[in-house]
Amino acid sequence: MASVPNQQALPPMAPLPHQPAAWTPQPVPPMFDDFWPRPEPSAAPAALLAAVLGGAAAAVFVPLGAPGIGWPLLGLVTAAGLLLVGRKAGRKVHIGQIGWAVLALLLLAVCAFRAAEWLTTLCVLTAAVAGTLAVTGARTVLSFALAGIAIPIATLRALPWTVRGTRELRRTRGGLRLAVSVLVSIVLLVVFGALFASADENFAELVATILPTLNAETVFRWTFVFVLFAAGTLGAAFTTARPPELAERTNPVRTLRRLEWALPIGVLVVLFAAFVAVQSTPMFGGEQHVLTTDRLTFSGYARSGFWQLMVVTILTLPIIGAAARWAPKESRLDRNLLRGLAGALAVLTLVIVASALLRMSAYQAAYGYTVLRVLVMTCELWLGVVYLLIIAAGVRLRAAWLPRAVVGTAMAALLALAAINPEGLIAEGNIARYQQTGKLDAFYLSLLSSDAIPALQQLPEPTRQKIVAGIVNELDEKDWRSWNLSDHLAPR
Q: Which pTM does this prediction carry?
């Protein structure tokens, strides 16, 4: 056997250069968590309960595509569920949120009194905006803008949060006992309700009125409405438990030099003043100006200036806002200059608002009242209120309250419009025109809702009977969800 040669000892290995530690990825916080953290999981069961109640209330109460008492009932149930979530999360409620919530409920209550679908649709949509502001607690212009997308985002974020919170609830017996209690309540309601219905015909009719006929269409509608409103309520509950918190601006606001902002605003003030002076007679002449001017009709008088003046009114708002944002305010001269120029521009715009209202009033007196014309006049009146608020804010150059006041007065204007019964007002205006001129658009009046029927009693027969019959014939057989006072009082 051959011998293995001796192996020489290897020299010691030189030390390796220092290697940097391996990079460990840091956990990235989920999107929005830096300024909108998730609420505590303990509030998730209450949020889930609020979502179920909101979805069930929508499926049971809401008459889709029609006004009715079901809308305010949905608002009350949803508000109660969100209040429970807020108490569970320990959130403090300020007076502004209470005000928005009250406005939302009042707007939904319009559906129980008025039958005009265009009016109740506006009220429901505006109530959703008011409810969003109540949930988010928005106070500034930026937070108002973000409030519009807060609920959809919160709905997506609430799903895993709710699952995690309900898992913790299952570890305790409280959640199981609550589920058993709800199940027992449903069973008792079904059993005893069926016994009472079989024992008395009147009670059976009441149950048949309350419960709709079950078919595939009803089940699909219930399911769709439940899922949609439950998801929205879950997002609102998530936001109620922990609303987004936007950091206040800490950097100093950059301003323009005095001449840079004062020159364009001053030019506008001179232009507005010249227009008001030259057009004083056409602007405020009204019916007399039309009658004494050759080749001028009421239609031409209103259309030649109303829409242009309304556009001027709207465009002036951001101009005044820009001046208030970028004008310097360090010295007394700068502050007084801002007050003077912005105030003069606001006052002159108020004069233009008054002129636009007079033009539309003369037009309606000549050609009659319509829903569109009443809505346009309401918007113009609200713009006048906005300019009054701007003038009030300019006295002390403090306008932190102005965004809330502008939105709040818009909702109050819609409530006031609903309170005066716009379709009744339209009918009265057209009847007054008929009594003066003998002209009446009976077809248009027959297209109004039952809100106009009390005012139509002033018409002579058989005109009144034909118009009222056209309105009543459009009243479909409705269940209790679509009940409203105007339809209830309409003659059958």
A: 0.82
